């Protein structure tokens, strides 16, 4: 026996298809796992909702690891110091981890590697939670991709590694006598109780959801994924964010169904396209210094964004007076998740109708989403704003009324999340400010009292956004309320 192998867990809170854990458990040395709540300056700290998920996920993982004879330690501090110190304290001869792709995190990982090597401790890293590592996908000219469709073609041409099995308890592996860190499953805060009721967290829950999605939902995914009022998507995003399931596992499970049920092959293909979008955002993250603060294309350098705290708070609380926007923001607040179509609508409303900087919206999502992700959150905000790679053009401004009527035709989604207007008939549910007085009153709606009037005039604010973003006008839109 050489010593002990320490597995440094990060965005990979699972046993199966975990290359670092698999490698550690294939040897004879005792294995201990550590999760570090990182406080390095380069690190962006998890937002409140994601931190809540993490706490629960670690509880679940600790129990799973215990069953295979691996103790989980949870430490706090700069990883650059904590990981080498923990390795030394435990007498580890080797530390292993799965890679991550954010530039600041890569710097931390390199520093850890150097510190370990200086102490004569071996350090080995393995592929992280993507289909293809960012540097392995290149254009013909050897440069990073900027266009999604070409990137997706390149990924599809690759052989995606088959998932690894979960390690088992083994008599061949020496036991460690290290006690795991006691972890409490804390849901005492009121806001977490609502979110808690909504989710099952951990690797087993992620697998169950994938199976349910592939059995019951994916066949209708191409249409269902756009309807926020139905259970039409996988809802795997927080599980993927924390690595309770891997992109490779999803890829292979979905592809296997394609072979069994060729009739739904195109629906599965559409779904896998979204998993590739996730890889694309990781690719962009890898190649761009700081995508949460620096536009990937400096197209809006001329724009003076509006600073309007009242409008921002109304948006955050779901009190803009635009029903589908309010429904989305309240779904986010109550569940820590929002449907993708509605994410696009609320983001477009903030950036283009309210002319508030996309980074302000990104930060709110960062704090409130359970799936808040270093790659997907800023990548998508930049996409909606129009400064991302392969982004929506600046003049693409969603009309939330038309979008509501198209994708929430009967208003089910709005009724669920904005109950104060639930009694409005279908015709007016997405534009209560245009409803006749008698309709409003028989639905118990009093605009400005029981439900806000629209924060901005949609047409005027859209026109102004086009002027400002195109560079023809540099003034922020006025927040005038229609009478
Ligand atoms: C403004 C904005 C912010 C977003 N922030 C995040 C975020 O922080 N974290 C996050 O995981 N996703 C984010 N998304 C992308 C997308 O909305 C979510 O991934 C999706 O809604 C999650 O639900 P699902 O798992 O049911 O998705 P499905 O439709 O079932 O898709 C399966 C998986 O594919 C990936 N995926 C789906 N859509 C996208 C997309 N547009 N871009 C990249 N990957 C995608 C996700 O990992 C998702 O879990 C954001 C989108 C917008 C418009």
Main sheet summary: 5 strands, parallel
Which ligands are bound? flavin-adenine dinucleotide
| SSE topology string | EHEHEHEHEHHHHHHHHHHHHHHHH
Note poorly predicted spans.
476-483
> Architecture of the largest domain, according to CATH?
Orthogonal Bundle
> Reading side by side through the largest sheet, how are the strands ordered?
3-2-1-4-5
Domain module count: 3
Question: From the helix content, strand content and strand pairing, which structural class follows?
Answer: alpha/beta
Specify the number of helices: 20
Distance between the termini: 78 Å
The helical percent reads 40-55%
The count of strands amounts to 5
**Over all CA atoms, what is the radius of gyration?**
24 Å
What name does CATH use for the topology of the largest domain?
Answer: DNA Cyclobutane Dipyrimidine Photolyase, subunit A, domain 3
CATH class of the largest domain: Mainly Alpha
Mean pLDDT across every amino acid position? 94
Describe this structure in words.
The protein has 483 residues and is α/β, with parallel strands linked by helices. It folds into 3 domains: 5-128, Rossmann fold (3-Layer(aba) Sandwich); 129-160 and 201-287, Serine Threonine Protein Phosphatase 5, Tetratricopeptide repeat; 309-470, DNA Cyclobutane Dipyrimidine Photolyase, subunit A, domain 3 (Orthogonal Bundle). The chain has 20 helices and 5 strands. The protein has a 5-stranded parallel β-sheet with strand order 3-2-1-4-5, with helices on both faces. Strand 2 (31-38), helix 2 (48-67) and strand 3 (71-77) form a beta-alpha-beta unit. The protein is globular, with a radius of gyration of 24 Å. Residues 476-483 have low confidence and may be disordered.
């Amino acid at each position: 026996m050489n010593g002990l192998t320490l597995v440094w867990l990060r965005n990979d809170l699972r046993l199966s298809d975990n290359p670092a854990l698999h490698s550690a458990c294939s040897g004879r040395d005792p294995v201990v796992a550590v999760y570090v709540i990182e406080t390095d300056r380069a690190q962006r700290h998890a937002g409140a909702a994601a931190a809540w998920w993490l706490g629960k996920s670690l509880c679940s993982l600790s129990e799973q690891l215990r069953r295979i004879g691996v103790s989980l330690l949870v430490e706090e501090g700069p990883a650059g110091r904590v990981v080498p110190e923990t390795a030394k304290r435990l007498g580890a001869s080797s530390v292993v981890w799965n890679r991550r792709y954010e530039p600041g995190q890569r710097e931390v990982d390199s520093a850890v590697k150097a510190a370990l090597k200086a102490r004569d401790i071996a350090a080995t890293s393995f592929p992280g939670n993507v289909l293809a590592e960012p540097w392995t996908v290149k254009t013909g000219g050897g440069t990073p991709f900027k266009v999604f469709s070409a990137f997706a073609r390149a990924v599809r041409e690759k052989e995606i590694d088959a998932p690894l099995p979960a390690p088992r308890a083994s008599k061949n592996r020496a036991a460690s006598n290290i006690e795991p860190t006691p972890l409490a499953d804390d849901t005492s805060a009121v806001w977490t109780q609502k979110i808690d009721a909504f989710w099952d967290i951990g690797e087993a829950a992620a697998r169950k959801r994938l199976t349910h999605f592939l059995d019951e939902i994916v066949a209708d995914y191409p249409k269902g994924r756009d309807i926020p009022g139905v259970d039409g998507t996988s809802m795997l995003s927080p599980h993927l964010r924390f690595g309770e399931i891997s992109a490779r596992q999803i890829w292979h499970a979905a592809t296997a169904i394609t072979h069994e049920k060729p009739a739904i092959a195109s629906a599965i293909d559409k779904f896998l396209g979204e998993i590739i979008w996730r890889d694309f955002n990781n690719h962009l993250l890898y190649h761009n210094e700081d995508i949460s603060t620096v536009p990937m294309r400096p197209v809006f350098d001329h724009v003076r964004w509006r600073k309007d705290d009242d409008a921002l708070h109304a948006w955050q609380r779901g009190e803009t007076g635009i029903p589908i926007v309010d429904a989305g923001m309240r779904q986010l607040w109550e569940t820590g998740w929002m449907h993708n179509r509605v994410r696009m609508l609320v983001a477009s409303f903030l950036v283009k109708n309210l002319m508030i900087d996309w980074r302000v919206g990104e930060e709110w999502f960062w704090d409130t989403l359970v799936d808040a992700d270093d790659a997907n959150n800023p990548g998508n905000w930049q996409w909606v704003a129009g400064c991302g790679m392969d982004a929506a053009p600046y003049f693409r401004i969603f009309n939330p009324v038309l979008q509501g009527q198209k994708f929430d035709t009967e208003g089910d989604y709005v009724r669920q999340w904005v109950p104060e207007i639930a009694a409005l008939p279908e015709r007016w549910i997405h534009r209560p400010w245009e409803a006749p007085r008698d309709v409003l009153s028989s639905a118990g709606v009093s605009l400005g009292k029981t439900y806000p009037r629209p924060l901005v005039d949609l047409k005027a604010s859209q026109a102004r956004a086009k002027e400002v973003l195109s560079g023809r006008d540099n003034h922020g839109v006025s927040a005038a309320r229609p009478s």
